[in-house]
Amino acid sequence: MAKAMLIDTKLCLACNACTAECKRNNNVPVGEDIAWTKIDDIEVGTFPNVRAYFIKTACKHCTEASCMDVCPVGAISKPDGVHVVVNQEWCIGCGYCAQACPFGIPHFGEPKGSMQKCEFCYGTRTDDESTACAAACPFGAIVFGERDELLAVGHERVTQLKQEGQANATLYGENELGGLNVLYVLADSPQVYELPGEPKKATANQGYKWLAGALTAGLIAVFPFWWIFKRKQQLREEQKTES
Amino acid sequence: MIDWGAPIWIYLWLAGMAGGAYFAAFVIDRFVNDKPLLRLATYLGVPLAIIGVLLLVVDLGNQQLFWHLFSRFKVQSPMSMGTWILLLWIIMAIVMIFSWWLENRVSRQVAESLSRLRGFISWINVVLAAALIAYTGVLLAVSNEALWSNTPLLPALFAASAVSTGVALLILAATGFKSLGVSSNTVELLSKADIRAIVVEIAILVGYIIWLATSSDGSEALRILVAGPMAAAFWVGVVLLALLIPSGLHFTARGKALESKGLWLTTLTSSISVIVGGLILRAVITIGGQL
Fold first, then answer.
1. C-alpha triplet B171, B173, B175: angle, nearest 5°
2. Average pLDDT of the segment spanning A104-131
3. pLDDT tens-place string over residues B132-149
4. Residue B218 Cα to chain centre, angstroms
5. What is the pLDDT of residues A38-54, one digit of tens each?
6. Three-state DSSP class for A201?
7. CA dist., res. A144 & res. A182, Å (int)
8. Which residue in B142, B149, B157 has the most chain A C-beta atoms within 10 A of its own C-beta, making it the best mutation to test that interface?
C-alpha cells in the first residue's frame, strides 16, 4: 500500500529544513517563487494576544484529485494508485489544475512552463525510503508511513492536545475529498490555518453547471425571438381584422 | 496568483460572441428566413474564434505541445470538451462559408444539394454554438475559485452575455455594412431581441450575486467583485456599459422613426456599449476569481 504523510503542526518550528531538502532532492530552482513545499506562517489575534501557527503547505495527494479530473491532456495521474504525479513532458501548462485545486497548490514557474508540485519524491526514492522532507525534519514533525498507522498516531496526538487545553485541535485529512494522503495534526480549526473546512472536488455538480449554461442559451435566444414573432403575428392578425 | 490573464478573458469574450452571434442568427433565420444574417454570423464568428484559439495557445506554458489537447476526449474536463466544441464549430462554419462560395460556381442541382447539406450542418452548428457559449462559463465554474464555482449561475451569466454581445455585434456589422444585405426589419428584430437578452442577463446577475452573498465562502469573493479591487470595473464596465446604458438607450429610442439618424446613433452606441461591457464582464470575473 502506498504511503501517506502525517504533519504535526505543533512540533513544527518553521526551520524550513524540509523546504531546502525538497528543493535539493527535486532540483527545484533556488528562490521563493517555486517551492514544492513551504511553511506558511499565520498570525492570529492582536497584540498582546497573538499566536503564530506554522503549517507545511504542499500537495495533499487527495483521493478525489481535482487536478487530475480537469487536466485536459491527462498529464496528471496516480501511477501507484495513490500519489498524484505530473508528467512534465506531457503537461502543456494550461493552468487548469491551479484553478481546480482546493488548496491552490500547482505552480508554474517563471517563465511559465509545466506544472510542478510535490510528488512525494516519486522516482527519487525506493518504496522503503522516506521523502526528503520527512528525512530532513529535525523535530519529527513530518512522518512518512502507512496511512492507517499515521491515522492512529494522529488521533492520539489530537487527544493529547485537547487534554492540554487546545479545545479545537483536530486531525485534518482523514475523510476530506475521499481521504487526503497528507494528514495534519492541527491545534485549532482548519480555517485558522487557512485550510478549507469542507474542501470540494472541482468537478462536483458539473452536470448542473452545463445545464444552467445550455438552458440559458436556449431561453435567451429562443424566448425573445419567439415572443417577438408571436407579437408580430398578433399585430398582423389585428391589422387583418381591422381591414 | 493570476494564472489566467488577458489572453483568457479576451478569448472567453471572443468565443462567446462568435457562438452567441451564430446562435441568434440561426434562430432568427428559422423565424423570418434571413440567410444574409446567418452568413454574416459565420463570416464574423470564424475569425473571432480563430483569434481566440491563437490567444489560448499563446497563453500556454508549453505552446508547442498544444496538440496534446487533441489526444483525448475527456468529458470530465470542460477544457477538453471546449477544445473539441470549438474545433468542430470552426470547421463546420468554414464548411458553411465554403458552400456559399461554391454555390454560385456550380450547376443548379449541385447548388441545391449544397444548400441541403449546409442546412443540415447549420443545425449541428447551432447545437455546438449553444455548447460553446455554455462552456465559456462552465470552464470557470468547474474549479475551486469561490467567485466562479460557488453557484451554477456563472455559465448562465456568460451564456446570456455571449448572446447579448453576439447580437450587438450582428447589429453593428449589419448597420455598418449595408451591402451585406441584412434587412432593416431584421436589424430591428435584433435590437428588440438584444434588449430582452439584456433583461435576462440582469436577472441572472442579480441571482448570481444573491447566491454568492448567501453562501459561506462566496461572500468574500463577492466583496472583491462589488466593493473590492474589481468594484470600479464591475459597476462602470458591467452594470453601466453592458446592462444599464443599453437598456436606457433602448427606452429612449422607442417611438423614433426606424430610419431616423437619431435611432441609428442610439443603436450604434448601445451595441458598442454592450460589446465593451461584455469584455469587461469576462475580465472582472476572471481576474476577480483569482484574487
1. 65
2. 89
3. 999 999 999 999 999 999
4. 26
5. 999 999 889 999 989 99
6. coil
7. 9
8. B142
Residue A31's pLDDT band (cuts 50, 70, 90): low
List, in sequence order, every beta strand (DSSP E) within chain A.
4-8, 38-44, 51-57, 76-77, 85-86, 142-145, 170-172, 182-186
Is the Cβ pair A211, B160 closer than 8 Å?
Answer: no
Assess B189–A contact: CB distance below 8 Å, yes or no.
yes
Per-residue b or e along B153-187, where b marks 16 or more CB atoms closer than 10 Å to that residue's CB: bbbbbbbbbbbbbbbbbbbbbbbeeeeeebeeebb
B208 and chain A in contact, CB less than 8 A: no
Nearest CB to A221 within list B27, B69, B201 = B27
The partner residues of A41 in beta bridges, in order of sequence, read: A54
pLDDT at B256: 61
Contact between B62 and A208 using a beta-carbon 8 Å cutoff = no
Count other Cβ atoms within 10 Å, centred on residue A67: 26
Count chain A–chain B contacts defined by CB atoms under 8 A: 182
| A92·B72 Cβ contact <8 A | no
Encode A181-208: b = buried (16+ Cβ within 10 Å), e = exposed: bbbbbbbbebeebebbeebbbbbebbee
Answer yes or no: do A92 and B65 touch at CB < 8 A: yes
* Distance, CA of B221 to CA of B230 (rounded, Å): 11
